[in-house]
Amino acid sequence: MATLTKAINKNLFDSILPTFGSPRVQMPVWDDSQKMFIFDEYESGSGNHYYRGIRFCDRIVIMEKVGLYHSWTYIDGIELYAFNGQKMELIQKRDYDKVFRSEDFIRQESEQMVKDYLTGVMKTQRVCIPAEEIASQATALISGCYKSFLDPDFNTRLTQIIPKLEQR
């Protein structure tokens, strides 16, 4: 029994962190400093490095498209998705050209995108809500997306989110 448990654990860790020369299983990697999962990493022919990162809460998903050019980190795009009960729908998208990536910039842009979305929905439903309340809701949603996955009370919806994003 002890050898079976040892073999299972060794295979699991070897797939996550294989020895040099062995292929690694592709899976999202949590980066606690950025508070997001990193996936779809690749290197272009010119040596630039690209990846997508996602962070989420119980209502929205923020996906960043990031490029590392030489020694600079740029944001190439931000996409916001909302859950509709069955699948995730793109609700806002912004593309950028040569904009340096910073945490403050991503938060501000994401909050503005949520505010724009909520304001648009309220207008189509002919509901009048004060701008301060919309701003408060947007700030709360974005703050929820920056919760650490390593926190013990993190509500994990990763098993539902990653497959939906990979279908795109």
Can you walk through the features of this model?
By secondary structure, the chain is an alpha+beta fold. Helix content is 36%, strand content 32%. The protein contains four helices and six strands, in the order αββββββααα. It has helices spanning 2-16, 103-124, 131-145, 158-166; strands at 29-31, 36-43, 49-56, 60-69, 72-83, 88-100. The chain has a six-stranded antiparallel sheet with strand order 1-2-3-4-5-6. β2 and β3 (49-56) form a beta hairpin. α2 (103-124) crosses α3 (131-145). The protein starts with a helix and ends with a helix. 17% of the residues are buried. The model is unreliable at 1-7 (pLDDT under 50).
Give the tags:
six-stranded antiparallel sheet, 168 residues, alpha+beta, 6 strands, disordered N terminus
The beta-strand count equals: 6
SSE class: alpha+beta
Question: What's the oligomerization state?
Answer: single chain
Radius of gyration from CA coordinates? 19 Å
- Provide the helix percentage: 25-40%
Report the sheet with the most strands, covering strand number, pairing sense and barrel closure.
Answer: 6 strands, antiparallel
